[in-house]
Design goal:
Distance between the termini: 62 Å
Number of strands: 7
Number of helices: 10
Order of helices and strands: HHHHHEEEEHEHHEEHH
Radius of gyration: 24 Å
Helix content: 55-70%
Organism: Anaeromonas frigoriresistens
Protein name: YIEGIA family protein
Keywords: Membrane, Transmembrane, Transmembrane helix
Strand order of the largest sheet: 1-5-7-6
Shape: elongated
Structural class: alpha+beta
Pfam families: YIEGIA
Strand content: 5-15%
InterPro entries: YIEGIA (IPR025918)
C-alpha cells in the first residue's frame, strides 16, 4: 500500500475537504459546537479514508479490504438513526418543536454527506490511478486528480443543495385582527384567544405573513403539515417568542386557506420585525419528505390547466 501513497493521500484530503465544505454550524446550533461537530468531522475523515483506500486495495488484490465499504454504509445508516434518536430525545424540550419531518430531514442529510465524502475520495483515487496507468507522471496524475476532486466537490455541493421556501412561494405581510375572541390573519381564523390582555398584545406586538405558492407544486408542498411545523419552528428560533410553557395563547400558529391553499402565519415575537419574518420564512428549507410535484404527472398537469 505504501506504493500507492500518492493516490491515497490526495484522495483522503479531498474527500475530507468535501465533508468540511458541507459542515454548517449556525443559529440552529445543530450540529452543536463542539461535540456533535467533532463527531461529524471524525465520521467524514473515516468516510474519506475508506474511499481513498478502495482503488489501491483492488489494485493490490486485497479484495477483502473493499468489504469495509459495505460496513461503512451500514455505519452511516446507523448515524442517521442516532441523529434521529438524539433529536427525538430533545424534541420535548423545544417550546416550538421541529416536527418529525424536519428531524428526519436532518438525519438523512447527515447520512448523505458522509456518502459524498466517500464518493469524492473514490473518484479522485480512480482519476489518479487511471492517469498513472496511461503513462502520465505521478505529479501530473495527482494534479489531474485534484482538479477532478475540486470539480466533484463543487458539483455534488450544488446537487445536494437544499431548496428554500422562497423558491416555491411568495411571502408578504399580513394583517392581524379579531372577531370577538377569534384571531384572524387576512380573514383566516387562526385560533381562539380568550384573554383580553392576550388580544391586546397580539394587536400591539403581533406580526403575520401570508405564504402564496407560485404553482401547483408549491401548493402541494406547503400543504404538508411537517413543512408547516418547520416554518413555525424557524420563525420562533430566529425571532424569539413571547410564549412560555403552558401559554397556548402565544403559540405561533400557521393555518391554511381552504379556498386557495395559501398559508397564514401569526407570531408574537420578542423581535417583532415583519420584514425579518418574511426573509426567515423565505429561507426555510423545503423538506424532502414534503416535496410534491403534481405538475410532473399527466393528470396533475391536465387538472392545473
Amino acid at each position: 500500500m505504501i506504493d500507492y501513497g500518492y493516490i491515497i493521500v490526495p484522495s483522503f484530503i479531498l474527500g475530507f475537504l468535501s465533508r468540511l465544505s458541507m459542515l454548517r454550524i449556525d443559529y440552529r446550533q445543530y450540529p452543536s459546537y463542539p461535540q456533535a461537530a467533532f463527531s461529524h468531522i471524525t465520521l467524514g475523515a473515516i468516510a474519506a479514508s475508506l474511499g481513498a483506500l478502495a482503488i489501491p486495495a483492488i489494485a493490490a488484490e486485497q479484495y477483502s479490504a473493499v468489504t469495509f465499504l459495505s460496513l461503512a454504509a451500514q455505519q452511516f445508516r446507523d448515524v442517521r438513526n442516532l441523529e434521529r434518536q438524539s433529536l427525538d430525545n430533545i424534541e420535548p424540550t423545544e417550546l416550538i418543536p421541529r416536527g418529525t419531518a424536519y428531524i428526519e430531514d436532518i438525519a438523512k442529510s447527515f447520512e448523505a454527506r458522509n456518502y459524498v465524502s466517500m464518493i469524492t475520495s473514490v473518484l479522485v483515487s480512480i482519476s489518479i490511478f487511471s492517469s498513472s496507468r496511461f503513462g502520465v507522471g505521478d505529479q501530473i496524475s495527482v494534479l489531474i486528480g485534484v482538479i477532478i476532486g475540486i470539480a466533484v466537490i463543487i458539483y455534488l455541493n450544488k446537487k445536494i443543495k437544499r431548496s428554500v421556501l422562497g423558491e416555491i412561494a411568495d411571502v408578504k405581510e399580513a394583517t392581524i385582527s379579531f372577531d370577538g375572541p377569534l384571531l384572524l390573519v387576512n380573514g383566516i381564523v387562526i385560533m381562539n384567544v380568550g384573554f383580553e390582555d392576550s388580544r391586546e398584545i397580539y394587536i400591539e406586538k403581533g406580526i403575520a405573513v401570508e405564504i402564496i405558492p407560485k404553482d401547483e407544486n408549491g401548493l402541494a408542498t406547503i400543504a404538508n403539515v411537517g413543512q408547516r411545523q418547520a416554518i413555525t419552528h424557524e420563525a420562533a428560533a430566529q425571532l424569539g417568542i413571547r410564549k412560555d410553557v403552558d401559554e397556548p395563547d402565544f403559540t405561533p400558529m400557521i393555518r391554511r386557506n381552504s379556498e386557495n391553499g395559501n398559508l397564514v402565519l401569526s407570531i408574537v415575537a420578542l423581535e417583532p420585525d415583519v420584514e425579518c419574518l418574511i426573509e426567515i420564512v423565505k429561507s426555510t428549507l423545503v423538506l424532502e419528505s414534503a416535496k410534491r410535484k403534481p405538475l410532473a404527472s399527466k393528470y396533475g398537469k391536465k387538472a392545473a390547466d
